[in-house]
Amino acid sequence: MTLAEKIGQMDQIVTGSLRDSANRPTATCRNSGGNADPLQTSCPGRVLIKNFTGSILAGGTDNPAENTGKGWADWHNTIQHYAIDHSRLHIPVIFGVDAVHGFGHPFERPLFPQSIGVGATWDPPRPRRRRGDRRARSRATG
Predict the structure, then answer these.
(1) How buried is residue 6: exposed, middle or buried, by Cβ count under 10 Å (0-12/13-18/19+)?
(2) Which stretch of DSSP H or E encloses residue 82?
(3) pLDDT band, very low/low/confident/very high, at 26 (cuts 50, 70, 90)
């Protein structure tokens, strides 16, 4: 691994850097259309391959155009395949989401709720007792 590849692997870029309303091979991707902007081949090429970026972050408002579990899976897989198939070392990217109280990005579908509300009760056995209670988990994730 070259020094530039090592440095790039420590970098994290938001998903907006991979989107634009048009494919701009020589320009920086602007993501002016927000979540409606699709992934463009020139954007991941510049970010993941040319700059060797090792981590992508979907921040609090960054969602795929199809904001469902399937939409997230397709979006993630597209980014991963691009990183793996087009890079010299075929290293997958770390894909992070801004999920403090559970991953609630998909509309009305928290994918990975965390029982942080129950865990913060200072009663360690309580989360174990309520583990099967779906209402407790939904309250904990808001």
Answers:
(1) exposed
(2) helix 69-86
(3) confident
- All residues at 6 or more sequence positions from 101 whose CB lies less than 8 Å from its CB, including other chains: 114, 116, 117, 140, 141, 142
Which residues partner with 97 through β-bridges? 58
Sequence letter at residue 6 = K
DSSP string, 40-74: -THHHIIIIIIS---EEEE-TT---SS-SHHHHHH
What CA–CA distance (Å, rounded) separates 104 from 88?
A: 34
pLDDT digits (tens, 9 = 90+) for 65-118: 888 878 888 989 999 999 999 999 999 999 988 776 556 666 655 555 555 555
SS3 of residue 136 by DSSP: helix
Which residues, listed in sequence order, are joined to residue 94 by a DSSP beta bridge? Answer: 55
